[in-house]
From TrEMBL:
Record-given protein name: Molybdopterin-dependent oxidoreductase
GO molecular function: 4 iron, 4 sulfur cluster binding; metal ion binding; molybdopterin cofactor binding; oxidoreductase activity
CDD domains xref list: MopB_CT_Nitrate-R-NapA-like, MopB_Nitrate-R-NapA-like
Cofactors named for this entry: [4Fe-4S] cluster; Mo-bis(molybdopterin guanine dinucleotide)
Pfam families xrefs: Fer2_BFD (PF04324), Molybdop_Fe4S4 (PF04879), Molybdopterin (PF00384), Molydop_binding (PF01568)
Length: 963
């Protein structure tokens, strides 16, 4: 017997590919080609913590679905031909229609070096402002709010403030799911200092509420009214820092006047917000009387037709109290993507220049023109994201290059985006994934490197620059994004400005740019973004660069936590911060009799954006494998919806068909739907086919949190689960969702046709003419014929009950399942999560019995995955609670391992524990009733108090059990 050889490959430090927290991690290759991942304990963003997505990154670096070679019009070609074609096509379009007839649409998934080259090429040499980014969709309202208040797009605080604060306000963010590591840091603070106040402001009850002392469930879109009310309260109770306001700000009186019009009457304000008056007063009182307050805000604030005003209403409250730039204080914008901040730095938005310089500032324009040695720098802003695709749809933009993003899924009014790209004369897409909704619209496909293959820098939400490092070789012919753009630039005649040898040279040029002389600038006397201390790095120094929080005016010798505005000086012409007078306005779209419900959208715990990466991890897909719509019980009854069945959503922009999740976590009149599913992964699960194209007039950010819709049941006659090693043709299926599982794909199917008709459609995907049949009828288990058949190389199991509409089939080679399906009129009444691993499970008696009976047995019976990190199922957890008499989350975690990874499943574990203990209590009460019934008259039994046996899905229990 040979012992396992230990992995002696050294760990390489890099940065997570997901949210704006910017967690450091360490990785090393495994023998199977994947990566072993662990948190970097030295990185100041996370100190070793990772969420479920970060922990599973090593499982996503697989060849499945990769774009490997360049192609033109669907025909594989070589790089030279593809690059020549792109350059020539752009040149011809510009020559005929002008520079504003072309555009780039880029992404927060790009590295800073990629972003810099894209911005330089479009604005500096093509001469158009038509470059915008999908970061427009997540944080441009924060950019606009910062610039109006501070003079620059500056995030003043750092993550360390979370540990130092005495009150943390989390508004417009399900932090537990969307920025899990920051949530874990706050949770750790609460455990050490229980007196720290945490307030969650969100229309929904989310997992973030688990750590909150107070939940303000305000009406969607009413944030400005809330924070104007807070400003009014601060003034009325004399908690405004008058000295700070006088010395360091302007515009307070006008901002207060507007705020008083919204929020001076607490009763009226509570009614506008739809919250309890006592909760409102409690929040205002805590904020007024707590000196160290951090306000974290994210997409629930930004993604709004009033997003910039929401941001400024928050900033006004911090400026009024002087709670900014100090330890444990400040407004804190949390970005959605790993390099949304880096894109902002280098001018990735259509209305900015690189290095936080402005297009409409003549001095800045001259500085950049001189630095880039170009006489073609655009002087005007380009189209923002929504307007850009409108221009494509009108035929005004005739060539677009889309990089590392999937706008056919992620942009509002998504069907219009698809139409626009379909009619555009030239669509170039750079991506690492071959089949996305957007690549299906492309004329030219260019294979880009993915995370773990490319090298460069990203900047997180606290302004900290970290290295993403190359960990694995690139499959196929993938290239770095900056290299692809440089090669096109050279072919367009701009080679002298794009002759970079490696990404370190790109970074150096950008870092030097942040030190351009502002001394003659009358509109900006100093600057926030300064990376001159990182300029002039050697190749080795760049490769080894540790995390750095800007500004970095000189080389740092240690990790620092830097706050801006501590001296009360801002980046406005007179150095004073500006209060911005804002008033509450309802969302741009209105509810109506035709569309009476408001649709909210957002992320779920284990998925990321359009799932092109997280969708490759089988454990991440196991928790919530199907798109769903959360609806309150009241609305479910009103509209005839049943939990687990399918609903049809519609409005003037589009439609969707998704599973119903009846939940008390959303209020009556409100719905919630995840953003992640695409046309590649589901028949009609794209939320953005419904989202209105309304945008904020200042920031251009779309309204993702309030869209009027109608809902009704979508009736079907049959359902199926289909396991296949390969992607199947779904065009004849009414409803389907595809999930990546080990060894292949799991399809969830629903049909308006009868079960026997659906079986005929699915049978070809699990059939081989050489496999002997091993059939069972409706009433018995595998026969002797089946047992004998196990010795054959290829065989199949088959169960049918036409009278009940049930059909189950499996094709087996040796002990390997090659495909199976389960069909019935309804599959929602029992757990089928056990089907997911079957393609990789050796086929034994338990597997055969489970397939033929439709009920999990043996080790398959662990139930729905709850803990993605440790792969622990609900049945395992419930059994442990009963058998081991567990009464606390710690006991559950110690016994099962659930919740001991990233910890984001702990709120769900708590809910399961509560429900299971409640059920045990109900059973004991019922047993007591049964005993009483034998000893007492019936009349006495009827008089006994009873405990409800059921409650709405997701409801929190009114009774605390097991303390």
């Amino acid at each position: 017997m040979t012992s396992a050889v230990p992995n002696i490959t050294p760990w390489t430090k890099s940065t997570c590919a997901y949210c704006g927290v910017g967690c450091g991690l360490e990785a090393r290759p495994k023998s199977n080609g994947q990566l072993e991942i662990r948190g970097d304990k030295d990185h100041p963003a996370n100190y070793g913590r990772l969420c479920s997505k970060g922990m599973a990154l090593g499982e996503t670096v697989i060849p499945d679905g990769r774009l490997l070679h360049p192609s033109i019009s669907g025909v594989r070609t070589d790089w030279n031909s593809a690059l020549d074609h792109v350059a020539k096509s752009f040149q011809e379009t510009i020559a005929e229609h002008g520079p504003d007839s072309v555009a780039f649409y880029v992404s927060g998934q790009l590295l800073t070096e990629d972003y810099y080259v894209a911005n330089k090429l479009m604005k500096g040499f093509i001469g158009s402002g038509n470059i915008d980014t999908n970061s427009r969709l997540c944080m441009s309202s924060s950019v606009a709010g910062h610039k109006r208040a501070f003079g620059t797009d500056t995030v003043p605080g750092c993550y360390e403030d979370l540990e130092l604060a005495d009150m943390i306000v989390i508004t417009g963010s399900n932090l537990a799911w969307c920025h899990p590591v920051l949530y874990q840091r706050i949770k750790a603070v609460k455990e050490l200092r229980p007196e720290v106040k945490v307030v969650s402001i969100d229309p929904r009850v989310t997992d973030t509420c688990e750590v909150a002392d107070l939940h303000i469930a305000l009406q969607p879109g009413s944030d400005v009214a809330l924070f104007n009310g807070l400003l009014s309260h601060l003034a009325s109770c004399q908690k405004v820092d008058e000295h700070y306001v006088q010395e360091h700000t302007e515009g307070y009186n006008r901002a207060l006047m507007h705020a008083l019009e919204d929020g001076c009457n607490a009763d009226a304000l509570a009614e506008t917000l739809g919250v309890r008056l006592d909760d409102l007063k409690q929040f205002f009182d805590w904020f007024a009387h707590t000196e160290k307050v951090v306000t974290l805000y994210s997409q629930g604030v930004n993604q709004s037709s009033r997003g910039a005003d929401k941001v400024n209403s928050i900033l006004n409250c911090h400026l009024a109290t002087g709670r900014i730039g100090k330890p444990g204080c400040g407004p804190f914008s949390l970005t959605g993507q790993p390099n949304a901040m880096g894109g902002r730095e280098v001018g990735g938005l259509a209305n900015t220049l690189a290095a936080h310089m402005e297009l409409d500032n003549p001095y800045h324009h001259q500085l950049v023109s001189n630095y880039w040695q170009t006489d073609n720098l655009t002087a005007t802003a380009g189209y923002k994201a929504i307007d850009l695709f409108d221009a494509i749809d009108r035929g005004q933009i005739k060539a677009v290059w889309i990089m590392a993003t999937n706008p056919v899924v992620s942009l509002p009014d998504a069907d219009k985006i698809k139409r626009a790209l379909t009619h555009c004369p030239l669509v170039v897409v750079s991506d690492c994934i071959a089949d996305t909704d957007t690549t299906r619209c492309a004329d030219v496909l260019l294979p880009a490197q993915g995370w773990s293959e490319k090298s460069g820098t990203v900047t997180n939400s606290e302004r900290r620059i970290s290295r993403q490092r190359r960990l694995l070789p690139t499959p196929g012919e993938g290239k770095p994004d900056w290299w692809i753009m440089c090669e096109v630039a050279k072919r367009m005649g701009f080679g002298h400005a794009f002759n970079f040898l490696h990404e370190g040279e790109v970074f150096d040029e950008y870092a030097r740019m942040t030190g351009l002389d502002y001394s003659n600038d009358q509109l900006q006397v100093n600057r926030d973004l300064d990376l001159t201390g990182l300029s002039g790095l050697s190749t080795k120094e760049y490769a080894q660069m540790p995390p750095q929080q800007w500004p970095v005016p000189q080389k740092a010798t240690r990790i620092e936590h830097k706050r801006l505005f501590a001296d009360g000086r801002f980046f406005t012409p007179n150095g004073k911060a500006q209060f911005v007078a804002v008033r509450y306005k309802a969302p741009a779209s209105k509810l109506s009799n035709k569309y009476p419900l408001s649709l909210n959208s957002g992320r779920i715990r284990d998925q990321w954006h359009t799932m092109t990466r997280t969708g490759l991890s089988t454990r991440l897909g196991a928790h919530l494998p199907e798109p769903y719509i959360s609806v309150n019980q009241t609305d479910a009854e009103l509209y005839g919806l049943e939990n687990g069945k399918i609903a049809a959503l519609s409005n003037e922009w589009g439609y969707a068909r998704i599973r119903v999740d009846v939940s008390s976590k959303v209020a009556p009149g409100q719905l919630f739907m995840p953003i992640h599913w695409t046309g590649v992964m589901a028949s009609a699960g794209r939320v953005c086919s419904l989202v209105s194209p309304d945008t904020d007039a200042v920031s251009g950010q779309p309204e993702f949190k309030f869209t009027p819709v109608a809902i009704k049941p979508w009736h079907y006659e049959s359902e199926a689960l289909l396991l296949s090693p390969n992607v199947i043709d779904t065009q004849d299926l009414d409803y389907w969702v595809r999930q990546k599982v080990d060894g292949g794909y799991l399809y969830r199917v629903a049909s308006r046709e009868a079960p026997e008709v659906l079986e005929q459609k699915l049978k070809p995907y699990c059939q081989t003419p050489t496999a002997p049949a091993m059939h069972t009828g409706a009433a018995h288990h595998p026969s002797a014929q089946q047992v004998h058949g196990r010795h054959l190389n290829s065989r199949h199991l088959y169960y049918s009950s036409p009278s009940r509409g049930q059909y189950r089939f499996a094709l087996i080679n040796g002990q390997q399942l090659r495909g199976c399906y389960l069909i019935a009129p309804n599959l929602q009444n029992q757990d089928f999560d056990w089907v997911q691993p079957l393609l990789e499970e050796p086929v034994d008696d338990n597997v055969e019995r489970s397939i033929l009976t439709g009920v999990a047995s043996g080790k398959l019976a662990q139930g729905k995955t709850i803990c993605a990190c440790k792969q622990v199922g609900k049945t395992t957890i419930c059994n442990a609670i009963r058998e081991q008499h567990l009464a606390t989350i710690k006991q559950v975690s110690d016994c099962t391992g659930a919740g001991t990874g990233c910890g984001t499943c702990v709120p769900e574990l708590q809910q399961i524990l509560n429900e299971e203990l409640q059920q045990i209590l109900n059973e004991e009460l019922q047993q007591g009733l049964n005993k009483e019934q034998t000893a007492k008259p019936q009349s006495a039994i009827k008089a006994l108090p009873t405990t409800p046996l059921k409650h709405a899905t997701g409801a929190s229990l009114a009774i605390n059990v097991g303390h």
